[in-house]
Automatic annotation (TrEMBL):
InterPro entries: Nucleotide-bd_a/b_plait_sf, RBD_domain_sf, RBM42_RBP45_47-like, RRM_dom, TGA_domain. One of its GO terms (molecular function) is sequence-specific DNA binding. Residues 286-363 form the RRM domain. Keywords: mRNA processing, RNA-binding. It comes from Brassica carinata (Ethiopian mustard). This is RRM domain-containing protein. One of its GO terms (biological process) is DNA-templated transcription. Residues 12-242 form the DOG1 domain. Gene3D superfamilies: 3.30.70.330. SUPFAM superfamilies: RNA-binding domain, RBD. It holds the Pfam family RRM_1. GO terms for cellular component: cytosol. Coiled coil: none annotated.
């Protein structure tokens, strides 16, 4: 029922589009299907789509894309963080949903959708709890170990950069240099493996729970799961709208010379696009650092990548670090607002099949 939503030939720079299409599919197809006279066939179709969603994420997860999946650029609402685990919903939430249905007094009075007769839940709940707790604990330990490995390599690189000729080194440059090493590639591959195993745990937990429920219970459970998965996009939009409605973005949020704290969402199909508060303009250029570039990147291609969106993008310069073999660059803007917006919006976007790592440059000029 999902058409080509789960196709495996989607370019990496369209992964944001996959999340958007998936959210729309849940809202426009899956949820109406479950609410309109549920049947076993409809339940299986929706469950199959959820399986395909996680399988598709695992297909695209690799050492070059894993940081995007763990920290997707559109998932900016920190209020949802407590229910997440390794880039998606914590599987404990799925078991908690069933328990909440069982405990719901109003639902227990519904003779069709009641969960009060779910006698086998106690045994399955204990089994799932043991599996989830054990697997999550191990995956978090493995994630921590991989992160520690990256930190050690970052600190070594950072210390070695303390040379007069490299006094302008910034964190993004160091991180990009570390990312190009063979050791770091192994770390990213390990994170991709951990992420894929977490998705398998999510998928198996949903499947085991659905297998225990009758037709109407399964429809209600799957409806709740679909609402959660679709809700990341829509709840974020509602949250941002509430900020605009209460005029919070018009309040002073920085001192002079401080970076603007932008609370509006970066452009996405479900999010409103509003201009930032006006800022003072200066005659000097405003420069960003762009790391993790492809070797074939050129000044003109990099400038074109930003000038499509930002009219004040003026100059781009590609640099090559012979020591690490990494390619990075700088882009200058005439408008300071566009510089800060580019740092937020364009970070982790794909350019020539590589995820850009964007940060503040040490100097406000490109020589």
């Amino acid at each position: 029922m999902a058409g080509d939503l789960f196709r495996r030939n989607r370019p990496f720079n369209q992964l944001d589009g996959f999340y958007t299409d998936w959210s729309r599919h849940l809202t426009e197809r899956c949820l109406p299907t479950l609410r309109d006279f549920p049947t076993d066939a409809k339940n299986e179709a929706v469950l199959g789509d959820i399986h395909s969603y996680y399988d598709t994420l695992n297909h695209y997860a690799n050492k070059n894309t894993i940081l995007y999946f763990l920290l997707p650029s559109w998932r900016s609402n920190s209020l949802e963080t407590p229910i997440l685990l390794l880039g998606d919903i914590n599987p404990r939430l799925f078991t908690s949903l069933v328990q909440s249905f069982i405990d719901d007094v109003g639902l227990s009075q519904d003779p069709i959708r009641t969960f009060s007769t779910l006698a086998a839940w106690e045994d399955l709940s204990l089994q799932l709890e043991n599996t989830i707790n054990g697997t999550v604990s191990r995956l978090l330990d493995e994630t921590r170990e991989a992160q520690d490995g990256f930190i050690r390599r970052f600190s070594d690189k950072w210390v070695s950069s303390f040379l007069p000729s490299q006094s302008g080194t910034v964190i993004m440059e160091t991180a990009t240099s570390v990312m190009t090493t063979e050791d770091c590639g192994a770390i990213m591959e390990e994170l991709a493996r951990i992420y894929c195993e977490a998705n398998q745990l999510r998928k198996s937990t949903i499947t085991d729970i659905a297998g225990l429920l009758n037709m109407n219970q399964r429809a209600l459970f799957l409806e709740s799961v679909c609402k959660l998965l679709a809700g990341f996009k829509h709840q974020d939009q509602a949250f941002q709208n509430s900020l605009f409605d209460n005029h919070l973005i018009r309040q002073p949020m920085m001192q002079q010379h401080d970076a603007p704290r932008q609370v509006y969402a970066h452009p996405r199909p479900f999010a409103p696009q509003r201009p930032p508060p006006p800022m003072n303009h200066h005659q000097q250029d405003h420069v960003i650092y762009v790391g993790n570039l492809a070797p074939e990147a050129t000044d003109d291609l990099l400038l074109e990548q930003f000038s499509r969106r930002y009219h004040s993008a003026r100059v781009a310069k590609i640099c090559f670090d012979e020591t690490s073999g990494s390619t990075y660059g700088f882009v200058s803007f005439a408008d300071e607002r566009e510089k800060w917006d580019a740092m937020k919006v364009m970070n982790r976007k794909f350019f020539l099949d590589r995820e850009m790592h964007i940060g503040h440059a040490a100097k406000n000029s490109i020589n």
